[in-house]
Amino acid sequence: MPVSGGAVVKVHDGVINGAFSVTTGGVYYAGGMPELRIEFFDFASQRSTGSENGPSVAQEKGLYSP
Asked: Which entry of 14, 43, 63, 65 is 20 to 30 Å from 35 by CA?
């Protein structure tokens, strides 16, 4: 929801509990079970993009530690 108010936007149906990180540009989140995927929801475009190699992206962004 925008700071100034507005409609709630559903990002994804399968976000793993607590596995997300909000940045100034969007939200990184883990989903895609049973195969882990790290995706990014871009606030500007209102679109999500995924990653083929979830864990490496998660490690790079500090969201996952083996």
From this structure: 43
Establish whether the linkage from the previous residue to 34 is cis, with ω within 30° of 0. Answer: yes
Number of neighbouring beta carbons within 10 Å of residue 56: 12
Q: How confident is the model at residue 4 (pLDDT cuts 50, 70, 90)?
A: confident
Query: Does 34 score more than 70 pLDDT?
Result: no
Domain ranges of the chain: 22-60
- Residue 28 pLDDT more than 70? yes
